[in-house]
Amino acid sequence: MLREARRTRGPKKMAKLIPAGSDLVFQIHYTANGRAASDQSSIGLIFSKHACEQRVLTLQLTNDHFVIPPGAPNYRVQARGTLPNDATLLSFFPHMHLRGKRFEYNLIHRKMNAVGKLDYEIEPLLRVNYHFHWQMSYRLAEPQFLRAGTELQAVAWYDNSVANAHNPDANAEVRWGEQTYSEMMLGFFDVAVPAGVDKQHFFIRK
After folding, report:
1. pTM, entire model
2. pLDDT by residue (tens digit) across 161-184?
3. Are 183 and 168 in contact (CB under 8 A)?
4. Residue 165: exposed, middle, or buried by beta-carbon count in 10 A (0-12, 13-18, 19+)?
């Protein structure tokens, strides 16, 4: 029997909203291994006892249009996006599969250089040596307020070489897929917004 438990509690006066009557739907990816097995998944919810001042939204930077060449030891994939409205950055949750090697989140600051051309600076937020069996949520010690228009970048590196002991097949060309022998590039992150703003309204640019 396999059991995984994760307990995540956010800052005070912040919470995710689950409207009354909601259905909670979980997507679990199973990979056949030739043997019968059982699974018992569970979830625990901690309900706020007080009205919250801010709502927590989980957003993501995703790239699902990559092809990792056979044998590539350090293949780079990135995704970028801009915040449509002000938000407070709280935490990160990177997700890849067995070829995942490193993952980082950055802020992109664009500016004009000395010769009048557009240039940019990268501000690192998180850099992780990734391991598929240890998928972690990383919370900022101090939440960071970000203005609308702030550009975020997620960068993932993959090891599709024989040096990767977890690699199912170093001779395979690897694309996006739900099975563990395929790959994903998902840079989840949590932000806090005013309590009356849901995800749909958050993405309406002012």
Report:
1. 0.86
2. 999 999 999 999 999 999 999 999
3. no
4. exposed
